[in-house]
């Protein structure tokens, strides 16, 4: 099945929407003409969902590329995020984002981190609800929220978040599953960013073997298999690249068919990698504690020597 749409929990309301299940992210693209070109290319190869943020410094470039695409506003899905930068309130920040993007509404507006929900989550969320009611954004959501943050929010919310954008990849999926399932209970769609971490930041781990086997069998690139794996988890996949060939590969990954066994093999290798990581962290902490204890002992022994030397 190609990259499809996922219904949001506000889909029944007049302003409600569905969200394209793959997004092209603009973090680290920089600003200036080159980033306009990257977003242009992403749209030209088939991305219809652009994920940006106040903090990425390139909303204006994303907006320019969207205009240059010639697509009707309704045919492009724009997510941006409140980053609590530039000293702007949430209301001021969305106005600034809309101006930079050159649109009169965004499709999804997220609080980028729980820490940005000031003075507290219920108060900040009430403002988000107001923005939705005013039509400045079709849907509202959060990012990097954990279960306690969502509980706090839900306890006071009139409108539940439509989405929670969090890091999801094969090495952390097991740890993120309770959060994803908690979201599901309240109709909150999880969006997974940095799905390619197993090859970009953690190469050489247990996933490499099944990934290479599956890629060879399907005549696909490893990054395509990782995106197809993330898609199989029912989350919105938020990815990026500056290379046009890779952009095309990402879109084509929506048609990749992974078997139940392929998905299970990546799941298992991901869990194994996570267990190895936990063991490494434990050993590192134990070594650190031993070193601290040894230094403390040496200090005590030295003080005793000094004390005895003075006394006798
Ligand atoms: N809400 C949040 O706090 C965050 C949101 N994001 C969003 O997610 C988007 C994607 O985040 P990324 O971490 O960039 O995601 P990603 O995991 O998709 O990594 C993308 C990078 O992987 C590279 N890549 C692809 N195939 C590769 C291969 N075979 N070997 C080596 N490198 C390869 C790409 O060229 C690109 O540089 C961001 O642009 C942003 O929109 C990202 C981080 C945090
Ligand atoms: O979203 C990607 C990383 C990130 C998280 N918070 C901020 C704020 C400003 C720029 C990037 C980010």
From TrEMBL:
<keyword id="KW-1133">Transmembrane helix</keyword>
<protein>
    <submittedName>
        <fullName>Aldo/keto reductase</fullName>
    </submittedName>
</protein>
<feature type="active site" description="Proton donor">
    <location>
        <position position="56"/>
    </location>
</feature>
<feature type="domain" description="NADP-dependent oxidoreductase">
    <location>
        <begin position="209"/>
        <end position="269"/>
    </location>
</feature>
<dbReference type="GO" id="GO:0016652">
    <property type="term" value="F:oxidoreductase activity, acting on NAD(P)H as acceptor"/>
</dbReference>
<dbReference type="InterPro" id="IPR020471">
    <property type="entry name" value="AKR"/>
</dbReference>
<dbReference type="Pfam" id="PF00248">
    <property type="entry name" value="Aldo_ket_red"/>
</dbReference>
<keyword id="KW-0472">Membrane</keyword>
<keyword id="KW-0812">Transmembrane</keyword>
<keyword id="KW-0560">Oxidoreductase</keyword>
<feature type="site" description="Lowers pKa of active site Tyr">
    <location>
        <position position="81"/>
    </location>
</feature>
<dbReference type="InterPro" id="IPR036812">
    <property type="entry name" value="NAD(P)_OxRdtase_dom_sf"/>
</dbReference>
<keyword id="KW-0521">NADP</keyword>
<feature type="domain" description="NADP-dependent oxidoreductase">
    <location>
        <begin position="22"/>
        <end position="196"/>
    </location>
</feature>
<dbReference type="InterPro" id="IPR023210">
    <property type="entry name" value="NADP_OxRdtase_dom"/>
</dbReference>
<dbReference type="GO" id="GO:0016616">
    <property type="term" value="F:oxidoreductase activity, acting on the CH-OH group of donors, NAD or NADP as acceptor"/>
</dbReference>
<comment type="similarity">
    <text>Belongs to the aldo/keto reductase family.</text>
</comment>
<dbReference type="InterPro" id="IPR044494">
    <property type="entry name" value="AKR3C2/3"/>
</dbReference>
<feature type="transmembrane region" description="Helical">
    <location>
        <begin position="286"/>
        <end position="310"/>
    </location>
</feature>
<dbReference type="InterPro" id="IPR018170">
    <property type="entry name" value="Aldo/ket_reductase_CS"/>
</dbReference>
<feature type="binding site">
    <location>
        <position position="112"/>
    </location>
    <ligand>
        <name>substrate</name>
    </ligand>
</feature>
């Amino acid at each position: 099945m190609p990259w499809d749409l996922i219904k949001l929990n506000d889909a029944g309301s007049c302003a409600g929407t569905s969200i394209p299940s793959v997004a092209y992210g603009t973090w680290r693209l920089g600003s200036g003409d080159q980033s306009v070109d990257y977003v242009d290319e992403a749209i030209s190869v088939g991305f219809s969902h652009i994920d940006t943020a106040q903090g990425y410094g390139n909303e204006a470039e994303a907006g320019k590329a969207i205009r240059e695409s010639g697509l009707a506003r309704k045919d492009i899905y724009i997510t941006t995020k409140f980053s609590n930068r530039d000293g702007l309130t949430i209301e001021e920040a969305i106005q600034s984002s809309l101006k930079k993007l050159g649109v009169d509404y965004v499709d999804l507006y997220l609080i980028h981190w729980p820490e940005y929900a000031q003075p507290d989550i219920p108060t900040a969320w009430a403002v988000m609800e107001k923005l939705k009611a005013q039509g400045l954004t079709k849907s509202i959501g959060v990012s990097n929220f954990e279960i306690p943050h969502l509980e706090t929010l839900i306890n006071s919310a009139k409108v539940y978040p439509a989405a929670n954008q969090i890091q999801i990849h094969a090495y952390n999926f097991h740890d993120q599953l309770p959060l994803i399932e908690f979201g599901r209970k309240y109709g909150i769609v999880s969006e997974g960013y940095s799905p390619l971490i197993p090859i970009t930041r953690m190469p050489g781990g247990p996933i490499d073997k099944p990934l290479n086997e599956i890629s060879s069998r399907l005549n696909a690139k490893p990054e395509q298999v990782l995106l197809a794996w993330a898609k199989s988890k029912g989350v919105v996949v938020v990815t990026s690249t500056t290379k046009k060939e890779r952009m095309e590969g990402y879109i084509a990954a929506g048609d990749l068919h992974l078997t139940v066994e392929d998905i299970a093999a990546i799941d298992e290798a991901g869990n194994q990698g996570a267990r190895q990581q936990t063991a490494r962290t434990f050993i590192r902490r134990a070594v650190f504690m031993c070193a601290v204890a040894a230094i403390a002992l040496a200090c005590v022994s030295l003080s005793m020597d000094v004390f005895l030397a003075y006394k006798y």
